[in-house]
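Many introductory courses stop at the sequence. We go one step further.
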Amino acid sequence: MITRDLIAYNTATQSTNKIHDDETARRFGFTGGLVPGVEVHGYLSWGPVSTWGEQWLTRGRMTSRYRTPTYDGDTVTVTFDPATGEGTVGHGGRVDATAAAAVSDLLPVAPALVDYPDLEPPPLDERPAASPHSLARGRHLGAISVAFPDAKADRYLDDVREVLPIYTDLGVAHPGWVLGLANELLMANVVLGPWIHVGSTVQNFAMIGTGARVSCRGRVADQYEKSGHRFVELDVAVFADDQPVTHIAHVAIYEPRQVREA
């Protein structure tokens, strides 16, 4: 078992997603603004990257799930068991998030560019409200495109308290930054109130290097109601210079029941 401690940091205090805002989050019963799940995923990635390095970044897989919130300023402990591939993030004796990671000798089929159309997202002021209609199962989403590194990537290693030198040594993107593209994809296509990323499964195929043009594309894999919350599941593919980099199954509560009750 390997472990490390870090001080969690809420990177999204200025986000349009007000679940990361202290005042809004407290109205929904949280202690304060939530540290984004993609950043918690970034904390969890320390374990498999420490263990397998480039091998995991180019062919590894990890599922992360977020049980309870991680808050800004929390001193959290990250654990990883190389024998089982299981990891956690927790504080105060509580497990906030879990991960299951592996490296396989047999990679699944990589996403094909042709299966993920490069559609234009709607203009920001014309995005529909998130709903069962706008997030209908099978709908292809407008793609987002960025150059790596962008402004967020330039500060990302500090933001997620990353200590591994591999990212600067190789000049490659951090797994948390890559996963964050799935959030950006959702927000580029619909207008959301406070919403919560609850988990993702990420399969890596390659690393994103300096100077790459990155395209994040996807579709709605499923959409449903559970325990009063409205969920969406996205099927997301990330390409760098038109080559497949990552395949993501991304799950979010796009309308928490507290919002509907309010």
